[in-house]
């Protein structure tokens, strides 16, 4: 074999080896599984807050509320505090943190005042997630959800 033929054959094998190595290494690279945007917290938006009526009282909302407890007890809420499932707190999509809301169970008339410290609920058909303490006061433990009326008692600040 001529030296030119050996040189060409060596170049082909070198190219092949570089190509295969590049292919193997590129298949090992991956994009991040989760992006920051996927878990971005819903932002407070004043446009989502109901306007006050001419009497100065906030508009009322009715809908379905659920409660959350054990899986989140001791973990951080959206406002940074530690969730205590026994306190009278709630999650709402748009009310500013520390807003106080009277929640009335329309099925039995029981009510309590909760403080918004978290964001949610993440099921579209629900309007509020309540702590276990609030759910007990509203006597909604058996069903897990209740038809409720929300009345803002005092607006919080973001």
The major sheet is characterized as: 6 strands, mixed, barrel
What is the count of β-strands? Answer: 6
CATH topology descriptor of the domain at 60-154 = Barwin-like endoglucanases
Q: Report strand %.
A: 25-35%
What gyration radius follows from the Cα positions, in whole Å?
28 Å
- Spans of at least 5 consecutive residues whose pLDDT stays below 50 are 33-47
Structural class: alpha/beta
Number of helices, counting only DSSP H or I runs of 4 residues or more:
2
Report the span from N to C terminus. 81 Å
Task: Please identify, by name, the CATH architecture of the domain at 60-154.
Answer: Beta Barrel
Just give the CATH class of the domain at 60-154.
Answer: Mainly Beta
Shape: rod-shaped
Range of helix content: 10-25%
According to CATH, the homologous superfamily of the domain at 60-154 is: RlpA-like domain
Order of helices and strands: HEEEEEHE
Kindly report the average pLDDT value.
81
């Amino acid at each position: 074999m001529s030296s030119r033929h050996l040189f060409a054959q060596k170049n082909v094998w070198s190219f092949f080896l570089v190509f295969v190595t590049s292919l193997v290494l590129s298949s090992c690279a991956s994009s991040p599984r989760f992006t920051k945007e996927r878990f971005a917290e819903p932002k407070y938006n004043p446009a989502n807050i109901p306007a006050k009526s001419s009497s100065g009282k906030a508009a009322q909302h009715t809908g379905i509320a659920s409660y959350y407890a054990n899986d989140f007890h001791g973990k951080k809420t959206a406002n940074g505090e530690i969730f205590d499932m026994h306190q009278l707190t709630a999650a709402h999509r748009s009310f500013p943190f520390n807003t106080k809301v009277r929640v009335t169970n329309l099925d039995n008339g029981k009510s309590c005042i909760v403080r918004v410290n978290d964001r949610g609920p993440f099921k579209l058909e629900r309007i509020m997630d309540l702590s276990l303490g609030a759910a007990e006061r509203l006597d909604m433990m058996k069903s897990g959800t209740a038809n409720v009326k929300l009345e803002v008692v005092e607006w919080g600040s973001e």
